Amino acid sequence: MHLLVKTIFLLVLCLLLGFVLAGCEQGPAKGTVHGKVTLNGTPVDGGLIRLVPVDGDGQPEDCVITAGNYEITLPLGKRKVELTWSQGGSVEVDTATQGQEPKAVQLFPSKYNAQSELTHEVKPGKEERNFDIKTP
Fold first, then answer.
1. How many CB atoms lie within 10 A of CB 70?
2. How far apart are CA 92 and CA 71, in angstroms?
3. Any alpha helices (H) in the chain, and if so which ranges?
4. By CB count within 10 A, which of 10, 40, 49, 50 is most buried?
């Protein structure tokens, strides 16, 4: 009987320790944001959506936009949203090396990427956020 009590005690202790350790490995609470990204009505394909913590606490999270769709899971909080989509453009001559370098053309205006004015609050669970960007 004494051995049975010790065995049960050790089993319960191991289970409790497992729950504690499992809880520690989860990290910060997360949410999933998904949706569509279009530029002047055209689905973005091969672009990038980057969500940057507004408070500077944490790392930016990136996701490739495929056929106008994206889905990203990241820690909760307010994020600045940056959208980029480049296509190869004209060839530019580098006078220092006399070589030709392809010049990439950024299709989104800077107010949607480098100087983004877009924000989103990531909340628990799964939520939809679409970006229908129009340019003149």
1. 23
2. 35
3. 2-25
4. 49
Q: Which fold has domain 2-128?
A: Immunoglobulin-like (2.60.40)
**According to the model, what pLDDT value does residue 115 have?**
93
Q: Which two tokens stand for residue 49?
A: 């959506």
Nearest to 33 by CA among 56, 53, 63, 67: 63
In the numeric block, which tokens belong to residue 23?
A: 């809880």
In tens, the pLDDT along 104-135 reads 789 999 999 989 999 999 999 999 999 999 99
Give the number of C-alpha atoms closer than 13 A to the C-alpha of residue 130, restricted to the C-beta side.
8
Q: Where are the domains of the chain?
A: 2-128
Token pair 């004494």 is found at: 2
- Cα distances from 30 to residues 16, 78, 115, in angstroms, run 24, 12, 26
* Spatial separation of the C-alpha atoms in residues 101 and 93, rounded to whole Å: 6
Tens digits of residue pLDDT in 37-77: 999 999 999 999 999 999 988 899 999 999 999 999 999 99
What is the pTM assigned to this prediction?
A: 0.71
Total residues belonging to the chain: 136
